[in-house]
Amino acid sequence: QQQVKQSPQSLIVQKGGISIINCAYENTAFDYFPWYQQFPGKGPALLIAIRPDVSEKKEGRFTISFNKSAKQFSLHIMDSQPGDSATYFCAASIGGGSYIPTFGRGTSLIVHP
Amino acid sequence: GAGVSQSPSNKVTEKGKDVELRCDPISGHTALYWYRQSLGQGLEFLIYFQGNSAPDKSGLPSDRFSAERTGGSVSTLTIQRTQQEDSAVYLCASSLRVAGETQYFGPGTRLLVL
Questions:
Q1: In this complex, is the C-beta atom of A41 within 8 Å of any C-beta atom belonging to chain B?
Q2: Where in chain A are the domains?
Q3: CB within 8 Å: B100 and A105
C-alpha cells in the first residue's frame, strides 16, 4: 500500500490559535480522504472527510483543504480549544473498492488554555 | 448495537500464553478490520473481512496471529504464544459495505504481555 505522509508529529498551539496538519499521498487513484480524531483511551472517530472533486470542505471550526495537483491535503482547526487536544490521523483510500485505507502516522495536538 | 464494541477492554497476560480478542461490529456492517496501535504510533493494519469473501490477511505480522469472523458478524483475533512486543492496543473497525468508506472504530483492547 502507498504511504500517506503526515506532519507534524506533534503540535502545540495556544487557545484560539489555528492548528494545521498536513498530509501527502502518492497514489493518484485515492479518492476519499478522511480525518480521524482520537482521544486518549478511545478509538479513532471520523471528524471530516473530503473527495477530490472539491478543494475545500468546512464543518464548523474544522476545514479540509485539498490540492489535487500537489497530492496534498490538510486539516485546519480554527479557534483551537483545549477540548481539541487529541491525536489526529489522516487517511486515504479508494472508495467503493477493496483497497484498505492507508493512515498517516498521526499528529498529537495539544491546545494550551 | 449503537457502535462497535470490543472485549475485553484490558488484557494482561504472560509471555507464551494465547489470547483472544473479540469485536462486535455495528449491525449490518459487512466490512470489518483489525488494527494494532502501539504506544504513540499510528494504525497498523492487520486483517480485513468483507462479507463472505476470503479475508485480506496481508497485515498479519506473523503466523501467531489469526482471526475469524463467524456468521458475518462477530470477529475474534487470536494471538498465540504471545510475546512482549505484542503489547499494544488492538482496534476493531467496521464499515457499511466495503473498504474505502467511513470506518467506525471500537474503543480497543489494551493488551499487556508480561
A1: yes
A2: 5-112
A3: no
d(CA B105, CA B4): 6
Chain A, chain B: beta-carbon pairs less than 8 Å apart = 66
Kindly tell me if the per-residue pLDDT of B25 is higher than 80.
yes
Q: Which fold has domain A5-112?
A: Immunoglobulin-like (2.60.40)
- B107 contacts in chain A (CB < 8 Å): 41-43
Block mean pLDDT (10 aa), chain A, length 113: 84 97 93 93 93 93 95 97 97 75 93 95
Side-chain-side CA neighbours of A26 within 13 Å: the count stands at: 7
Question: Would the CB atoms of A106 and B42 count as touching at under 8 Å?
Answer: yes
Q: Which residues of A fall within a CB distance of 8 Å from B41?
A: 105-106
Positive or negative: CA dihedral A61, A83, B43, A44: negative
Quick: pLDDT tens for B54-108. 899 999 999 999 999 988 799 999 999 999 999 999 999 998 876 567 889 999 9
CATH for the B5-10+22-102 domain, from 2.60.40.10, 2.40.50.100, 3.40.50.1370, 2.40.160.20:
2.60.40.10
Q: How far apart are CA B57 and CA B67, in angstroms?
A: 9
Please tell me the number of Cα atoms within 13 Å of A107 on its side-chain side.
27
Q: Which residue of A has its CA nearest to B44?
A: A103
